[in-house]
Each structure stands twice: as structure tokens, then as C-alpha cells.
Design goal:
Length: about 375
Amino acid sequence: MRKLAILGSTGSIGTQALDVAARHADRFQVTALVAHSSSERLFEQVRAFRPQIAALTVEPAQIPDDIKNACQWMFGEDVLTRVVRACDADDVLVSVVGVVGLAAVMEALSCGKRVLLANKEPLVAGGELVTAAAKAAGHPLLPVDSEHSAIFQCLQGAQGNRPERLILTASGGPFRTWDKADIMNATKEQALRHPNWSMGRKITIDSASMMNKALEVIEARWLFDMPPERIDVLIHPQSVIHSMVEYADGAVIAQLGTPDMRLPILYAMSWPERLPTGGQRLDFARMRALTFEEPDPDRFPGLGLAYAALRAGGTMGAILNGANEVAVDAFLHDRIRFGQIAQLVEETMQAVPVCSHPTLEQVFESDRLARAKACELLKDGRYAL
């Protein structure tokens, strides 16, 4: 029986993690649940799982009488780290959105808890710090993203052999076949219509711009200690092969499965074991084709920014991420066009100074400076709709 804390329990990853925890109630005990502001959904989760701690960043007007004394309640902006510190958990699933997850990851590792990482930003913004903390803690970072979980699974068969190349697959999103001019002017409704995956709004927009894949390239560099020039991206519209690893002899090992996030979630929760998800199995006889394309850097410039950030090093990942969060929010609030997301990120990266080998405080300061600069640039008439 492993005790599990879920940060971001009301989001897509969090709710699916609770689904697999309920399916294997003899193996997992949910001891802490944290959400941002979705209080009604959290109340239902507390009724179902009876955790020791439940928390919200935004305090609700009231707690229903039937669960008011069912657990310890916490509220406030710093609730993620306070819950991590206080909870009785073996594993902490970090599935919040944004750089706020970085402090929680660092806190979990310092407390000796195992981190199941669905939040991209900790490694994008603070990869050097997080990987050093994980090494000191003696725990592997267990990836929950389908692509990184796939690579992690493929590496289980390495037998000590050094992989030569990591190949991240991407669906291509809703604009895979669109021309550049149409992508520039895509609407929110079009960008949020992902062909294969059901995700939150911010991640879905990132997937449409391929900025999501840019963040994953940076993650892969830190998770697997792989030089960026040996991390490739291929568009694979069917989303059956979730990623691949190429070895020195030319052999390529791939992980395949239906587009179901419960598989990588449960693999991280149960590692090194495998437990059944109850999901749909692949039917190879019904597959007509598995196709691949190289991403077009002209139509999807965000992907190239990941490699630029890795070349710059230091806090450039934090700058990229902070600027992207501002840009996506601006798009969702009709302040810029879709094609201007990458433009705003790149301009911010060029304007904010980089700090080498940063402390945690310097990472957060670079994030703050990037957001401030991106907001300043948004006032420029070039970004007006």
C-alpha cells in the first residue's frame, strides 16, 4: 500500500489518477488532495477518498458540514509546499499547471518523498536544481507525461547500454496540415479542438502551437541526461507510438498504446511494477498505418525555441516558460493572435538576461522578469488585434 498525495487533483491528470487509485484501492491510499479553486469538485473527491489533508489555494466561502471535520483543511497561496511538508505520503503526484509546481517538487524531494511528475515547468524552469535534488534524495523522477513515460519505459531494457537518441512523438495538433497564414489567425475554438487528447486549456493551446513539445524537449534533456542535439521530434498523427529510444547498434525500442493517460499515470504510481488500467487495448489488425513527419519550424517556430533555450542554459528555460504562460493567457483573453504566441516568447527571451547555475530564488526571479517583460511587450501596438 503506497500513500499518495495529489497536487492538482481536480484537473485532467489528477482526476484520472484518482480513477486508477480507486481501481487499485488495495494498492494506493490517497492521503492528500490539493486544488486551486475548483472547490465543489474537490469536495466530491474528499467524500469519495477521505484524505487526511485537503487544500485549496483559493479559500471557499464555506466547507459543507458533512466533510468539514472529515480531514484537515488548508488554504492559501503557499498551500502546495505546506501540504507536501505535512502530508503522510510516499509519493507526490505534481499535476498543477505552471511554475508554481517547482517549489512543491523541491519540497517533496527534500522531505524524501518520491515525485511523480506531470507538471512540465519544474524541469523546464529549474531542471538543474530538480535533478540535483532528486539525486541527493536517492529517488528517480517518475515521469507522467505520455512521451517521457514512454522513453522511461523503453530505457528499462537498456541493460546498461547508453541510448544514442531520444525520439519524442507529437500528434501535430489541430493545425498539422494548416498553412502559416491560417495558423497565425486561428481562433480559440480551433486551437482548443485537439484531435487525440483531452487536456486542460493551457496545455491544449501549447499542443496546438507545438510549444508543448518544446517544453518536453527541455524536460527530456534533464530527465534522461541527454544532450539536446540527440533529442529529436517526429509528428505521429495517430498517437499510438508515444516515443522511442535509439541505441548504438541502430535498434529502436518504442512504447505503444492507445491515447489513454491512465497508462503512464498508473505506471508512475506502481513502478517498478505494472498494474492493469482497465483501458482499451491496441488492436493491431485494425491499424491501417502509422505515419511520421518532420515538424515544420516555419509553421511551428515554438519548437526551435526549446533548443535555443538549452543552448543558452541557466535560467533561459524559466524565461521561455514564463513568457509562454503570459502569451497563452493573452491569446485566451483575445489580446493577441495565435501566431503571435511564439513571437512574444522569442522577443522576451532576447530581452531578459540569463543567470547561469541559478539558485531557486534566481529561477523565480527570472520567471518574474520574463512575465513582466512579456506584459510590457504586449502593450506594444504590434501585438494588438
